[in-house]
C-alpha cells in the first residue's frame, strides 16, 4: 500500500499523488438556489479570458458550462489550441489538468476546481515504481528493445519518464496508432498504467496473442516475472486498472443480453478483456457518443462506461433504448468531485482576480512530458 492510498479524499495532502487535497476556499453551499446564475455571471465577466474544458464523465450541472466537451485526447488538443485564453478551467481530473498545463503557454493558468479530483488508475503507477521496473528490464538485458507507452491517465512524472526514454503518450482514441508507432521503434512495449487498454489494443487490434503479453506487478519483486518471461514477451503490461470500468463483468453482458433482446453491447477499452470480447463494439468515449448518435432509431444499447455519460446519452436519444451495462449504479467518484459549488467558487475567484487551485508542472518534468505528449499529437 502506498502512503497516498492511506489518505482519505478531501483531507490532508500528498502533492505527489492524484488524490487527497482539501479545498482551500469557502465553498458556496450546494443548496444555494442561485448557483447556476452565479456561474453564468462569473463566466460572462471573464469573457474571452476564460476557456472551460469538460470531460464527458462530468456531471450535467458542470458540463452545461463547458465551452468544449470531449474525451481526454480531444481535450488535450483543445487545450493546446487556445493560446489566447489566460485561464483554462479544467472540469475533469488531475492528470488531464496537468497535461493541459504542459501543453499551454507559460502565461496561461490551468485551474482544477477541486484538487481532490484525481484518478485511482493514475495512482497505480508511481515514478519510483516505474524507475524500478526499468531497472528490472535493464537487468534482464531488454531495456534497449523496449519502447514505453503511457496512457494519458498517468501523472506528469510518468509521462516525463516515457518522454525521457523515447516513448509516447496515448489515449483510448489512438492507442492502436501509438502501438503501431512504438513497434516500429522497438520490438517490445512497456504499457502503463492500464493493463486492460494495453491488452485489448494489442490482442484485439494488433493481432498479438495473450501469450505475447505479460503483466508486471509493481508490488512484487522483479514485477513477479522471470527474466525468460520478460525476454519472451512483446507486450509488458503494468498491473493497473480503472476501478469504474473494471466493475463490468461477463455476467453483466450476459445479464443485459437476457433482459434486452437484440441489445448492442458497447464498451470502453478500459473494460476487462473478456468483457470487451463479449461486447459488440469497443471504443473511446468519443467513439461511444458517435456510435449512439449514428445508431438507427429504435435500436437498443447497453453501454459500459461512466454513468454520467450514459445518462446523458439516454436523455439525448429518447428514440433509442440506452441502458447502463451493469445493474449497480457506479459513477467515477473523483470525476464527480467537480460539482457546481466548486465550479462557482473557482470562477468567482478568477473573476475577482484570484487564481485558485492552479495546476503547475515543474519545468524539467514538463519538458520531457511534453516530448511524449507532442509525440502523441504527431501520431499519423
Ligand atoms: P477517454 O477520455 O480517453 O475515453 O478515457 C476515459 C477515462 O477514463 C478518462 O478518465
Ligand atoms: Fe480514472 Fe477510471 Fe475515473 Fe477515468 S473513470 S478518472 S480512469 S478512475
Number of domains: 3
CATH superfamily of the largest domain: NadA-like
Q: Examine the secondary-structure arrangement and name the CATH architecture of the largest domain.
A: 3-Layer(aba) Sandwich
Return the structural class: alpha/beta
> What fraction strand?
5-15%
CATH class term of the largest domain: Alpha Beta
Alpha-carbon distance between the termini? 39 Å
Mean pLDDT: 93
Roughly how many Å is the radius of gyration?
21 Å
Question: How do the helices and strands follow one another from N- to C-terminus?
Answer: HEHEHEHEHEHEHEHEHEHEHEHEHEHH
Q: What is the third-level CATH name, the topology of the largest domain?
A: Rossmann fold
Largest pleated sheet: 5 strands, parallel
Secondary structure tally: strands: 13
Q: What is the count of DSSP helices, taking H or I runs of 4+ residues?
A: 15
Bound molecules: 1,3-dihydroxyacetonephosphate, iron/sulfur cluster
Share of helical residues: 25-40%
- What general outline do the C-alpha atoms trace? globular
Low-confidence stretches: 1-16
Short description, anyone?
With 380 residues, the protein is an alpha/beta fold. It is built from 15 helices and 13 strands. 39% of the residues lie in helices and 14% in strands.
What does the model show?
With 380 residues, this protein is an alpha/beta fold. The protein has 3 domains: 4-119 and 334-361, Rossmann fold (3-Layer(aba) Sandwich); 122-242, Rossmann fold (3-Layer(aba) Sandwich); 245-324, Rossmann fold (3-Layer(aba) Sandwich). 39% of the residues lie in helices and 14% in strands. It has helices spanning 35-46, 60-63, 72-80, 94-103, 127-139, 156-164, 175-185, 195-205, 227-232, 250-259, 273-278, 285-294, 307-316, 340-351, 363-377; strands at 50-55, 68-70, 87-91, 109-111, 146-151, 168-170, 188-192, 213-216, 235-238, 264-267, 281-282, 300-304, 321-324. Strands 6-5-7-9-8 form a 5-stranded parallel sheet, with helices on both faces. Strand 5 (146-151), helix 6 and strand 6 form a beta-alpha-beta unit. It is globular and about 65 Å long. The two termini are 39 Å apart. The model is unreliable at 1-16 (pLDDT under 50).
Amino acid at each position: 500500500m502506498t502512503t497516498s492510498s492511506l489518505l482519505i479524499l478531501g483531507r490532508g495532502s500528498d502533492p505527489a499523488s492524484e488524490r487527497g487535497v482539501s479545498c482551500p476556499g469557502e465553498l458556496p453551499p450546494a443548496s444555494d438556489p442561485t448557483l447556476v446564475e452565479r456561474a453564468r455571471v462569473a463566466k460572462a465577466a471573464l469573457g474571452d479570458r476564460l476557456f472551460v474544458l469538460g470531460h464527458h464523465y462530468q456531471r450535467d450541472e458542470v458540463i452545461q458550462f463547458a465551452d468544449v466537451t470531449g474525451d481526454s485526447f480531444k481535450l488535450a488538443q483543445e487545450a493546446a489550441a487556445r493560446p489566447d485564453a489566460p485561464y483554462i478551467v479544467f472540469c475533469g481530473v488531475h492528470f488531464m489538468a496537468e497535461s493541459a498545463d504542459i501543453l499551454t503557454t507559460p502565461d496561461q493558468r490551468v485551474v482544477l476546481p477541486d484538487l481532490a479530483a484525481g484518478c485511482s488508475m493514475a495512482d497505480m503507477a508511481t515514478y519510483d515504481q516505474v524507475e524500478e521496473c526499468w531497472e528490472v528490464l535493464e537487468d534482464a538485458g531488454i531495456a534497449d528493445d523496449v519502447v514505453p507507452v503511457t496512457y494519458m491517465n498517468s501523472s506528469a512524472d510518468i509521462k516525463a519518464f516515457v518522454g525521457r526514454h523515447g516513448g509516447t503518450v496515448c489515449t483510448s482514441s489512438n492507442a492502436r496508432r501509438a502501438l503501431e508507432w512504438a513497434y516500429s521503434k522497438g520490438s517490445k512495449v512497456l504499457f502503463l498504467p492500464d493493463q486492460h487498454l494495453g491488452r485489448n489494443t494489442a490482442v484485439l487490434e494488433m493481432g498479438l496473442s495473450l501469450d505475447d503479453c505479460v503483466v508486471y506487478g509493481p508490488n512484487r519483486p522483479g514485477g513477479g516475472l522471470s527474466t525468460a518471461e520478460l525476454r519472451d514477451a512483446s507486450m509488458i503490461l503494468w498491473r493497473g486498472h480503472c476501478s469504474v470500468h473494471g466493475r463490468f463483468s461477463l455476467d453483466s453482458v450476459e445479464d443485459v443480453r437476457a433482459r434486452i433482446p437484440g441489445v448492442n453491447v458497447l464498451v470502453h477499452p478500459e473494460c476487462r478483456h473478456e468483457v470487451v470480447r463479449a461486447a459488440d463494439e469497443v471504443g473511446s468515449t468519443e467513439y461511444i457518443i458517435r456510435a449512439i448518435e449514428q445508431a438507427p432509431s429504435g435500436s437498443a444499447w447497453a453501454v459500459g462506461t461512466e454513468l454520467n455519460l450514459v445518462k446523458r446519452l439516454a436523455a439525448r436519444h429518447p428514440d433509442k433504448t440506452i441502458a447502463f451495462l451493469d445493474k449497480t449504479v457506479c459513477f467515477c467518484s473523483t470525476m464527480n468531485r467537480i460539482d457546481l459549488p466548486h465550479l462557482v467558487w473557482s470562477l468567482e475567484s478568477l473573476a475577482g482576480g484570484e487564481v485558485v487551485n492552479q495546476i503547475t508542472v515543474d519545468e524539467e518534468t514538463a519538458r520531457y512530458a511534453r516530448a511524449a505528449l507532442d509525440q502523441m499529437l504527431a501520431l499519423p
